[in-house]
């Protein structure tokens, strides 16, 4: 697993304001959307595209379009909903699914309480989004479950607890951002 630390000045600035206890709720929501849009730019670097012929004002040429089947964005409810708008701004044709998970406070194991996903995820690029990567239990359970076993799942988080951002604690080979 590769951990990508997005240390761009705009990202670190927005994250600092976002984390400040004095930041009012409306500013927090706006900053979350802006931050996720910036992170989504990098997260979609390897989105699948297909060649397409286009007509410009001057000539006909080749371009690219997002491939079918379309990528799917899956926020882990409820916290992941705050990241949804920022990601679909860059992928407006992406399908959106939902996965509700809750952690048992005794065992700390996550369980799924709600799911709305396509029946077949076998050839989909899936962006599982959750704003905070702490132990990674919810994301690991979401990615490992048979119903969300997309061929290419990319977990995305806005921030991580440093001790948990280690390869041994992650069951997936994708990049965490």
The stretches of 5 or more residues where confidence is low (pLDDT under 50) are 163-177
**First-residue to last-residue Cα separation:** 11 Å
Give the CATH architecture: 3-Layer(aba) Sandwich
Proportion of residues in β-strands: 25-35%
Please give the share of residues in helix.
25-40%
Shape: globular
Number of domains: 1
List key phrases describing it.
disordered C terminus, Rossmann fold, 4 helices, six-stranded mixed sheet, alpha/beta, 177 residues
Concise structural overview:
This protein has 177 residues and is of the alpha/beta class.
Please describe what this structure looks like.
This protein has 177 residues and is an alpha/beta fold. The chain has one domain (2-176): 3-Layer(aba) Sandwich (Rossmann fold), CATH 3.40.50.2020. It is 27% helix and 30% strand. The chain has 4 helices and 12 strands. The protein has helices at residues 9-19, 25-43, 81-90, 137-144; strands at residues 2-3, 49-55, 60-66, 72-77, 95-96, 98-103, 110-116, 125-129, 132-133, 152-156, 159-160, 175-176. Helix 1 runs antiparallel to helix 2 (25-43) and helix 2 (25-43) crosses helix 3 (81-90). It starts with a strand and ends with a strand.
């Amino acid at each position: 697993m590769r951990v990508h630390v997005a240390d761009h000045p705009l990202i670190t600035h927005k994250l600092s304001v976002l984390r400040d206890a004095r930041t009012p709720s409306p500013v927090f929501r706006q900053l979350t959307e802006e931050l996720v849009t910036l992170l989504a730019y990098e997260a979609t670097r390897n989105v699948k595209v297909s060649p397409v012929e286009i007509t410009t004002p001057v000539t006909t040429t080749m371009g690219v379009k997002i491939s079918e089947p379309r990528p799917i964005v899956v926020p882990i409810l409820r916290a992941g909903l705050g990241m949804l708008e920022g990601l679909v701004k860059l992928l407006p044709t992406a399908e959106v699914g939902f996965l509700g998970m809750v952690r048992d406070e005794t065992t700390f194991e996550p369980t799924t309480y709600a799911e709305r996903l396509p029946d077949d995820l076998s050839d989909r690029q899936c962006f599982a989004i959750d704003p905070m990567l702490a132990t990674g239990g919810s994301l690991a359970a979401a990615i490992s479950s048979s119903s969300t076993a997309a061929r290419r799942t990319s977990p995305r988080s806005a921030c991580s607890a440093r001790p948990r951002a280690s390869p041994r604690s992650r069951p997936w080979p994708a990049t965490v951002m």
